[in-house]
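In response to reviewer comment 3 from the previous cycle, which asked for concrete evidence that the modeling workflow produces usable outputs, we include below a single protein chain processed end to end. The sequence was submitted unchanged, and the resulting structure tokens are shown without manual editing.
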Amino acid sequence: MDKRRVPEHRLKKEERDAKYAATAKEAADKATKERTEKEKVYLERAEKYFNEYQKHDQELIEAKRTAKKDGSIFVEPEAKVALVIRTKGIMKMKPTSKKILQLIRLRQINNGVFLKINKATLNMLKRCSPLVTLGYPSRKTISDLVYKRGFGKINGQRIPLTDNEIIEKELGQFGIVCIEDIIHEIATCGPHFKEVNRFLWPFKLSSRRGGTERKSQPYQQGGCWGNREDKINEFVQNML
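The workflow returned the following structure tokens.
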């Protein structure tokens, strides 16, 4: 078509549209390239953590074998992280216990949170022990909780962890850019455990299939509340 017969406003519109299309294509190509590079970083970190876990487990097995061979006793390192789950409601609850549950963010029954094990947290848990059950979660339990029930707290809202970009935006300043970083930080009780734990919304778990043990009795007497140690993993798997 002869350009001399095309209205000027149409020519300008076509030129503007072509410019916008080129800019949009450039932005899309750049985003695709950045996404590919980030996915490569995520895979590298996941592989790095997997190798680290494998090495740690193998060293533990070898230490046990050596101790058995030498006729000595091998004592495993003490757990650094506890998983605490609320098991009772607000009926006949003391004000101190209620305040402690608020501080550790256990506001509803079957809510769960991670806590760093130290003297302060142990003293708090002792004050509200008939209301919670706790134990030492395995890496698999931590991974299942984060992947299946993981939500982040962003501007006071409960946001599902469907994209690593959400994590990088909130925790990137601490070098945590993907969900595997979160799992590793919790499992190893890393230097940014506090920031990661604060970012994670308390886990909302389902009621136990087959019912719950007697809530008025401690776990050691066949009840529900108290320290289950590594048995917490079986308890949680029933609630996912």
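The longest strand covers residues 81-86. We consider this sufficient to address the reviewer's concern, and the full set will be provided in the supplementary archive.
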